[in-house]
DNA sequence: CTGAAAGCGCTTACAG
DNA sequence: CTGAAAGCGCTTACAG
């Protein structure tokens, strides 16, 4: 293995100083064209591979990359359609700024902390549900800008969230308008600890995930205005996988056949619910109305197609990346959702 | 802005040498516990943030990250279900090794070269269709291990591909067995230059993408064995998006109503084909048989569900990452596919 | 187990 | 526009 050719070798061969050679690569305008060419020729001849990335990073302090962390669901992030849309938006904005995207990968929370500490990035984007998390503390210790997505983190350089309360309120109102009167809520996990199935009032009150808290409040607000107490609503906590929510829904509808309105906190969950309800012969939307949350593509292909509260996850990711890259003071952006009407809540007019 | 606390400051405060302080963080076993604690205390007191990542990288030459490059479809990679599965496998293996995943992001090929040069990574994983590419040259100039996925790159440290020939041959054979006799092939792009619609014999012969070349050869081999010449098969080049392939299929079936077998090079393309065929009233599988390629989840929800050649893209990505991280000599892995039988090729027995 | 020293390869003030 | 020098912050032989 030959010794690596470095800038000084090139400079010597070209008969210039190291500084000038550096400029030829990094700031070509500062070097006279003929000298620049001489330097490039020397580089080619010696087999110089261009400035060493890590050395430049150390010197300039810039990593040229944004770190993306999914503390709640590390492996899972690459399966959730919504996370992928987020990543697409992040990737788009990073590409625009000529910055790479570093996905912090780990098998468990402890490893994630190491992974965060080993990542050469200029800022972190954190997608998580809960603000109380060792991984977040590890990031904050690094003292780099942190943009939080979908939850509030104290001291974040920026925050992008949804108006989850309004979205959930509108979702419940829509099912009320469609005539539903006996409700079940299929909730996302309320805390980091796995817990599936019926939610006790205790558990309902203990939701540490901002998204869950806000959406529950929104659903309840609309229902209570229609005279339906939260205690009369069946709450089921689901894993965010259609297979799992299908199982939960089968049990739900066996125990509570009177349910005629299902409020699902994600489309993935809603899709499982529709599958399960159809399998046991429930007619939708006549017999049972379902509304999801997110607006993923797969919702177009359920039977019936899924009515949902649509959010623009791509834009959410893009905005977060933009905040991270702009270096502006920390602000909070709250995005709106819109009702995406399909067949699972009312007969299509088509 | 206070000056950054560095290791030497901590060492002085703890009354040890810089080397010992370094060991306390990086190789704790080499430092006596009581000394170690003294160092950690000093670090805490001074607000030391832990060893500087970039400095360590420069010194050790290890980046602790794997670069992933999609030269053909930079933004598109986060939309294609198959690319996402690949990424999931890569992420899984990287997490296992405590290595982060760096996605090289760029808006155009030129930017991609810069992005490659700015990426602090230990090796590159390249997913591409064609081996002749400026981005690949840029990577090779960096002289780091390069694992190529889905195509052969000369000098790669490793290669992971599918047995595309056998897969396509089996796909065509299956439709023959189901009774199809008039075929159309919906092909992926054959070269990097956009070209959609009917393929001339010229274009067929010029396919620079390995995947397209192999699959065409496989389809043709099976069809020719059944007495069907390649020149009697309609070839259409599609963008890998269901909306686009749907349009192409509508035209195809208008021009060639006799077609009763569609061989699609991806499930995404096949899904569009099924949608289009159903929209104009073609009965599947009775009237028209369709087989896809990949085995993505969305294929379960078409009407009828999509028969396809299933590949394990997650494993493909995982294997590629494993090769990159093992540092073993370059070898080639060829993965098999399997027929995934659903309703688009024959009546289900259910 | 500990300390003193070298050096990873570059970029950037600074002086000309 | 060019050159000489400092230093980014660390880890790792090396000698004890």
UniProtKB/TrEMBL annotation, chains A, B:
Lineage of the organism: Bacteria, Pseudomonadati, Pseudomonadota, Alphaproteobacteria, Rhodospirillales
One of the record's GO molecular function terms: DNA binding
Keyword Transcription regulation assigned: yes
Coiled coil start-end: none
Record-linked InterPro entries: HTH_LacI, Lambda_DNA-bd_dom_sf, Peripla_BP/Lac1_sug-bd_dom, Peripla_BP_I
UniProt keyword Ion transport present: no
PANTHER family xrefs: LACI-RELATED TRANSCRIPTIONAL REPRESSOR, TRANSCRIPTIONAL REGULATORY PROTEIN
Residue ranges annotated for the HTH lacI-type domain, each copy included: 5-60
Pfam families linked: LacI, Peripla_BP_1
SMART domains, per database record: HTH_LACI
Annotated keywords: DNA-binding, Transcription, Transcription regulation
Gene3D superfamilies: 3.40.50.2300, lambda repressor-like DNA-binding domains (1.10.260.40)
Protein name as it appears in the record: LacI family DNA-binding transcriptional regulator
Biological source species: Thalassospira indica
